[in-house]
Every structure is written in structure tokens, then in C-alpha cells.
Amino acid sequence: MGFNIIGAVVGFVIPAAEKIISAFIDHKFSKEDKRNLPVKVQEIRQDQRVRQAEIDYYNRREVREKELLQIQELRLKADMQIAVAKAEREERALQLKQEELEDKRKLSALYLDLVREKTAKEIQLQQKEIQAIFDQQRWPGVLSRDEAQRIFIDEQKKPRLLILVPPPDISEDFPISFRDSLNKEIRNQLKIFLEKYYSLQGDLCPVEFYGKYFERSVFDAEVKQLETILSAVPTAIIYTDVTDHEVYFNVRFWGLQEPVSLSFEPWNWEEVKKELEEAGNDEKQSLRVIRQTIVTLHKLLAAFLADWYYLNINPNYEPQLLNIESDIPDEWKSTLIEKLTSIRQQYREIYDNELKALADLQSQKTQICQRAVYNDELELQADLQNKKNQIWRCIKTLSGHSSRINSVAISPDGKTLASGSEDSTINLWNLSNGQIIATVNGHSYPVRSVAFSPDGLVLASGSSDNTVKLWSSITDNAFVGKILTGHLDNVISVAFSPDGTTLASGCADKTIRIWDLKSNQLICTLSGHQYAVMSVVFSADGETLISGSIDDTVKIWDLKTKAAIHTLKEHSSSVKSVAISPDGKIIASGSFDQTVKIWELQTGNLIHTFSGHINTVSSVAFSPDGKTLASASLDSTIKLWHLGTKELLNTLSGHSLSILSVAFSPDGKTIVSGSEKKTIKIWRYE
Questions:
Q1: What pLDDT is attached to residue 35?
Q2: Given the DSSP bridges, would you call strands 586-591 and 575-580 parallel, antiparallel or unpaired?
Q3: What's the count of helices (H) and strands (E) in the chain, helices before strands?
């Protein structure tokens, strides 16, 4: 009767299996402390793409399980149902199970893709360090530089576990035929085994096996060198020593957490050989059984390492070891299967609890969001009604210019009104009583634009004399600083930065100039518009500039790079005016196409188009609370739009000719408008 190899080796296999599993269990996350989840996996599970995919999967799974339960209940009443209905139920049950498998497949693919994404980033960060290691150290030749570089490249393309199995270090006491055969059998049989159950071409649990690339065995110090080079790549190394009477198995694993090193109690192969020979086997047959045992143990370790790795990444993963039949005897893998099943069950319980917690949290957030939306809607409707109840009336009409009013601006304290006119002068008015405070003469051609500095101490003006001028102590008609020169045509628009340190000027020469107001020097010139720049305004943080042009576009400029990051082209005619909301999130633009458009500053996306004017929209202005937009037009009206509901609130009529400029007071209770009829109107609501 032949010797029972299973009985001979089971005393080694089961303790070894239990030992490796116990070591890995110490590193897995438990029910009591989820923080034991490997760092890389924690980061992947925190990714918003994964979170949303898991929530969607959980919600779909819950719906499917309820429906399957209903089908199961109907099955119990099958004798009361007709055959057609039963067939339909069975078909639907099968369809639900297929949907569950497809959802798991997609989620599994996402987990693996994010592992690849994260690993690729880690490899990129280490590239310089790795090159330095190659250049400064003498590489021992276990794995060549070219092979290592190929691993890096392949790892960034597709996620996989790298399994390295160098030739065993075999005592010279063995016959050459034994040593040569064992090396070949491990390399070839393990390659076939891994390609069969853990194919690199598969998407479930790809493993790349490195065996033939090793010309010799490796030792602990060389394994650490390999780890230094390949630290960003999930890797398991199985390396073996075979003495004249014992076999030593060693495992080193890294890629999910702190590296794990395991060495097992030696297996006394000499005793097994003696029992084999006593059972009637010759030496050649006995050594063949010994070799096959060593090879099978390699398969067992490789399978467990691959399954444990992918189970950590993907809680929906089904360990392949549970399905391996012919390549590993059941008695050998029974303990491993028992432990893997237990680990999987614990992982699944924790995973399901996490999914439920995520779904519940999202449900709570959705409910809170819905309540918030409802409350916002109530607040919006209340604000809309309140603004509709506001009756705006013209309380004063100011006269004092001898030509049309091109621009109006109100000081930050709300006390002073500035007006720039075609008559080349600037008038300063007391906004409260409408009296002229001062008339500033200094430009030789029409004043196209006026603007107050954020502190209200300086007034800037742009003119058709191609200059920008800065004024302070205006009651004394004193001119501050030197004239800002350099434009080649009419300066049509001026705007201060929020901190008051810089000024932007838009010109008919197609350019925008940015000025340093501390030195009165030019910082830069922004070029990109094809025709005259009609209006400029800074963003709330001062890092972005918005401009509107005769070329029908609005441009958003990054002032750090001096480049246009968005060009908004939805207007069908010239853009006359641009403004930015108080919170700095949206832009308004008024155009010759008779529309007002609202844009998102960050993306440049068009949010809404207001239509209602029957002539050019010449000027736009946000209310201080950011809820209302005023648009002035050459149709002699001012329209007030509610930005929340996008409704027209009011139309202010009173000017008999075109309105060229409009502005809100800081408290939002006053609107001023300048007209082609040489007058300014002050509007207040009751």
C-alpha cells in the first residue's frame, strides 16, 4: 500500500496555515476598531466617488432584497398561483440576482481602479528617489533595473498584486536533478496555477507572477532591498530554504499597510522521505513526492496572499481559494478556507454596517437639504413678495451738467454721488439733498467712467483724452498723483481692486491696464479682446478681473497668470457693462443685444438670461444684498430683477432719453441713474 502524502504533511500544513492567518488577522480591521483598516484602503473608501457608488449600491440592493423577499413569499403560495405568474416571478428573481452581480462587479472595478490611481501617484512621487537608489547603489542583480522600471510602468496602467517567487536555496547535498527539477516545477506550476485562478488579464483578482526573472535565490537583506525599490507596488515574496533535512518557508508582504514578515516552523522532509521509503517507494519516487509537496505549499501560500489582499480592498470579493478543486487537496486547504470564510464574514458585516451608516447619513442629509430647500423657498418667496411691495419713486432730478451723463458712482459711505459727463467734467453731489459739492475740471475730453476707492478717499476717472486721473480733497479741486498714461485711445471704464491698491482701466485700444496705486506704475497690460473694452470689474478676492467688450464677449482674467481663463460668448452683440455680485460668485453682463446674462464666475457657465428691454442694456448693478439686479437701458427704463426667482420686480420709468449708467447706494435703498438728457435721477423705495 502506497504512502499517504496528505497524512505525512498535514502536521505541517495546518499549523503553518493557522500561523500565517493569525499573523494577517492581527493586521486586519475588526468590529471593535475599524481604524485597523489598511491606510491605503481607508483613503480609497473615503474617496467621494467610492462613497457615492457604495451608497447607490446599498440603496439598490435594499430594493432588490425587498422584492426578492416578496417573490419568496409568493413561492410559498405556489399552489395557489398559475404557472405563468410563477414563471414570471422566477424570471424576475433571476434578473434581480444578475443586477446584484453586475452592481458588485462595477463597484469592484471602481475599488481596483482607485487602487491603481493611488499607486500610480505613489510611484510618481518615488521616481526620483528610486533613480537615486539605482544610481548610487550596486544593484545585486536579483531584479534588474529594466525589470523594475517595467513593473512601475505596468502598475500605473493596471492594478495587480505582484507575487515574487525566486528559486529556493537548496543544499548541495541534494542531487543536481532534484535541485533543477524543484526550481522548474515551482516556477512553471505556480505560473500555470496563478494564470488559471488569478489571471493578470482578469479584472477580479489580477496577479503578476515573477519567477523566471530570478536567476538565483534571495536572502532577507536582498528582500529588504527589493522592498525599498518596490515599496509603492503591492507585493508578496515567497522565498524558501531547503537544507539536507528541513524546508523553511518565508513570506514578506507590503502594499496595504506596514510590511509583514513571516517565517514558519521548518518541515522535516527527511522524516517524510523515510516513511515513504518504508512504505515501498524508492528514493526517486520519494523525492518526487517531496518536491510536489513543496510546490503545492507554494500554491497554497500564493492563493491565500492573493485572496487576503483582494478581500481587504474589496469586501464583495469572493476568495478564489474557495473554488480551487483539483490543484490543492481539500484536506490541505480546509483550515485556510475556514479562516478565509470567517474573515470574509467579518469584513462583510462591517462593510454592510458601513454601507447602511453611509446611506442613512445621506438620507438624513437629503432630508435636511430638502427642509433647507423648502425653507429657502419660503424665504425666497417672502423676499420676492417684500421686494414686489417696494414702490420705487423718483425723489429728485439733478441738473448741472451741460451734456449727457456717462457714468455715476456712489461713495462707500453713501453720502456722495459722483457723475462723469460728456462735458469733460465731474460733479460731486450731496446724495441726501441733491446739492452740488464741487465740479472737477481736469480732463480735456469727455469723462467716460468714474469710480470711488473702497475707502472713499480717492475718485478715479477715465476719459476720452486717453488718461486715467486720481482725485482726492475734491472739494478743493486738488489733483492727486500723476496722471496714469499709456492707453492709446479712450479710457472707457475704471475699477478699483477690493483692497484699493490697484486700478484697472478698460480702453478703446482693446487693452486693459492694471496699475499699482502706491507707485502709480503700470503692473501689466491684458490683451485679448478684438475691439474696445467697455467695462471692467474686480472679483471679490481681487485675484480675478472681468471685462466686457464690443467684440461681443465677456472675459474672466486670472491676474496671477495674466491670462483669460474663460471667454463667454453667448451674447449676440457688444457687451456694454459688467458687474459682480457682493458674494463674488456671479457676474452680470448687459449687452447691445438687449439682454442681461448671469454667469457663474468660477466656471464661466451661463446661469440665466433676462429679456425685457427693447434697446441696448447700457449698465447693470447688483443690490448690496445680492438679491436684486438693476439694468439700465437706452429704452429709457431701469428694470429690477429678482435673482432668486428670476422674475421682473419693477420697471422704473421717468427718464425721457437713454439711461447710460445706474448704481445702488450701499444700503440698497437708493438707486441713481444718469441719462443722455444731461440729468441724474435719484430713486428710493417706500
A1: 40
A2: antiparallel
A3: 10, 35
Cite the beta strand spans of 550-594 per DSSP E.
Answer: 554-558, 563-568, 575-580, 586-591
Alpha-carbon span 126 to 159, nearest angstrom: 18
pLDDT digits 0-9 by tens, 272-294: 888 888 888 888 888 888 888 88
Encoded amino acid at 575, one letter: V
CB 319 within 8 A of CB 340: yes
Say how many CA atoms lie within 13 Å of 524 toward its Cβ. Answer: 10
The reported pLDDT for the residue numbered 636 is 95
Q: Using a CB cutoff of 8 Å and minimum separation of 24, what contacts does 56-62 make?
A: 57/103, 57/104, 57/107, 57/355, 58/355, 58/356, 58/358, 58/359, 59/359, 60/99, 60/103, 61/100, 61/103, 62/359
Which CATH class for the 390-685 domain? Answer: mainly beta
Residues in a beta bridge with 588: 579, 598
Element (H, E) at 344: helix 330-388
Q: 16-55: string of b/e by CB count within 10 Å (b at 16+)?
A: bbeebbeebeebbbeeeeeeebbebbeebbeeeebeebbb
Distances in whole angstroms, Cα of residue 21 to Cα of each of 260, 337, 341, 674 = 12, 10, 12, 83
Report the alpha-carbon distance of residue 628 to residue 596 in Å, rounded.
Answer: 13
Q: What is the pLDDT of residue 285?
A: 84
| Residue position matching grid coordinates 398561483 | 81
E strand or H helix that includes residue 390: none
Q: What is the pLDDT of residue 37?
A: 62
Of 394, 439, 395, 398, the residue nearest 420 (C-alpha): 439
**Boundaries of every domain in the chain:** 5-361, 390-685
Stretches where the chain sits below pLDDT 70 are 1-40, 74-86, 126-145, 212-213, 330-333, 335, 368-378, 380, 383-384, 473-481
* pLDDT value of residue 6: 42
For residue 29, give Cα distances in angstroms to 315, 348, 349: 12, 12, 12
SS3 call for 349: helix
Angle formed by the axes of helices 269-278 and 283-313, to 10°? 130
Report pLDDT for 52: 83
- The pLDDT, as a whole number, for residue 665 is 95
Cell 435673482 appears where?
643
Using H for helix, E for strand and C for coil, what is the string for 84-134?
A: HHHHHHHHHHHHHHHHHHHHHHHHHHHHHHHHHHHHHHHHHHHHHHHHHHH
